[in-house]
Design goal:
By secondary structure, the protein is of the alpha+beta class. It contains eight helices and 15 strands. It is globular, with a radius of gyration of 25 Å.
Length: about 350
């Protein structure tokens, strides 16, 4: 998503033209290089066995979803019509044009709409004969809604994903959760630990902990950096979550209840370039109750990359080695952020 946010910012700053396209049934558009046979599916309406008792098989001519080489074949077929770049294998560049694709969803940005239309025509009528649909202006991408405003700013949000999270946590079934006393202004402030002797989960039979963590991780990485540190803390205990970890997930959900329609508003500032803000919390997870755990003395790294005054990438995670001082933890965080 870093590349997506960066391209959208560049498009707004330089007032470029943009479109989104969708490849229809992407995988079957690619040919197979290997010889693959499959059993005849039930319901096809042909005899599975021949007169001599041998079983008929089907020989595949096209790439199918479910094949282990399916993604590779589609990506290779796509590269026949476009030339990728090493900085991002999903990014294709040529003079006056940038193409970003994720499986079958594609964003086109160019200095002129004519260039975009010419590329779409060449993809459809070239030797590859891509089958695609023109989705028009970029207002959705990978489940992320992009709302454009007249002043040149835009907002990235994921209300549908948040609603799914609330459904998984069953916070949408009871109206009392939407009241001021049941929702939360902040997702949480406490530091979590393993709690090996803690109480077991209360709602283990109602929702899956890992499912909720996975959905929250995708949400925080795309449009909600305000819950990054909280989601990362909960993700650390996915193997054996206790009631305190379950409560932390529910608290994040109660926080999202108040702001399910909100996301990040980007208002590009042409006077600013690429900036990096980084900080470290030295041994911030240490607790007297679990003083002997090495994990609790790991420092936390947090940084955000900004372009034109807008966040394009953010991270909140534990460092991989134990820092012996505040200064050392700061240097480790700085090193991690500059590598990105």
């Amino acid at each position: 998503m870093l590349t997506v946010r960066l391209l959208l910012l560049i498009c707004k700053i330089h007032k470029l033209h943009s479109k989104s396209i969708d490849f229809v049934l992407a995988f079957p558009q690619a040919d197979l290089e290997e010889e693959i046979w499959m059993e005849i599916p039930l319901g096809v309406g042909v005899d599975v066995e021949s007169d001599d008792g041998e079983e008929y098989l089907l020989k595949l001519k096209k790439n199918l979803y479910g094949l282990k080489q399916g993604s590779h074949n589609w990506f290779k077929h796509l590269k026949e019509g476009l030339t990728d770049r090493e900085i991002d294998p999903c990014l294709y560049l040529k003079e006056g044009l940038a193409v970003l694709t994720y499986v079958d969803d594609c964003i086109l940005i160019s200095t002129s709409m004519q260039t975009i239309d010419e590329l779409i025509t060449s993809l459809e009528k070239g030797k590859e004969k891509f089958i695609l649909t023109d989705e028009g202006d970029i207002d959705k991408f990978l489940g992320i809604e992009i709302q454009h405003f007249e002043n040149g700013s835009f907002e990235i949000s994921q209300p549908h994903l948040i609603n799914r999270i609330l459904q998984v946590l069953q916070l949408d079934k009871n109206n009392e959760w939407s009241t001021a006393t049941k929702s939360r202004e902040l997702p949480g402030t406490s530091i979590l630990s393993k709690e090996p002797k803690g109480k077991p989960r209360k709602y283990e039979d109602r929702w899956n902990y890992r499912t909720a963590v996975g959905m929250l991780t995708y949400l925080q990485g795309n449009s909600r950096p305000d819950i990054s540190v909280h989601v990362h803390q909960c993700a650390r205990f996915s193997i054996d979550p206790k009631r305190v970890h379950e409560t932390a997930i529910i608290n994040i959900g109660r926080y999202l209840l108040r702001s399910r329609e909100r996301g990040i508003i980007y208002n590009p500032d042409k006077t600013k370039g690429l900036e990096c803000y980084v900080d470290a919390d030295f041994a911030g997870g240490w607790q007297q109750a679990d003083a002997d755990s090495a994990e609790n003395v790991m420092s936390r790294t947090g940084y955000v990359l900004m372009y034109a005054g807008c966040p394009i990438h953010w991270v909140s995670k534990l460092q991989t080695e134990i820092a012996l001082s505040t200064a050392e933890s700061e240097y480790i965080a700085l090193s991690q952020s500059l590598r990105e």
